[in-house]
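Title: Comparing notes on inverse folding

I've been comparing how different people in this forum approach sequence design from structure. To keep things fair, I'm posting one structure and asking everyone to reply with a full sequence. Here's the target:
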């Protein structure tokens, strides 16, 4: 399968590891073309970079383009801002891309308890992997 890998850009290194594992399993992967700008940076530096990419580099539309030819999306939802299995607004949009395109939607970890769009995440009916990529099929 051709699989997009998404998550908070704070998790860039972890998302790259997920890509490597999926490729070892025979899948083709992609993630944001801006990923290299986040490697090795502090969380604060990543936040600054993230805003630059959203406002100046059209990061939302950038991910939409490769999503149109994908079969699935894997969301790397790790803990952030005190929220277990965090899914931010941008990733929520990317999940919406996969849902509207009738692609498989996988969450690396369980659905977070998100106060504003938790029910929408549930309605997209993602496959929860519980930390194991073996369920990506």
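Reply #1:
Here's my take.
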């Amino acid at each position: 399968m051709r699989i997009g890998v998404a998550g908070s850009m704070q998790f860039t290194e972890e998302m790259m590891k997920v890509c490597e594992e999926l490729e070892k399993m025979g899948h083709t992967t992609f993630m944001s073309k801006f990923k290299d700008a986040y490697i090795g940076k502090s969380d604060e530096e990543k936040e600054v970079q993230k805003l630059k990419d959203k406002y100046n580099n059209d990061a939302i539309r950038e991910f939409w383009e490769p999503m149109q030819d994908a079969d699935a999306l894997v969301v790397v939802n790790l803990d952030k801002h005190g929220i277990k299995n965090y899914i931010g607004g941008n990733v929520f949009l990317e999940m919406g891309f996969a849902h509207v395109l009738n692609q498989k939607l996988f969450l690396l970890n369980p659905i977070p308890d998100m106060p504003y769009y938790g029910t929408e995440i549930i309605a997209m009916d993602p496959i929860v992997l519980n930390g194991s990529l073996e369920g990506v099929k």
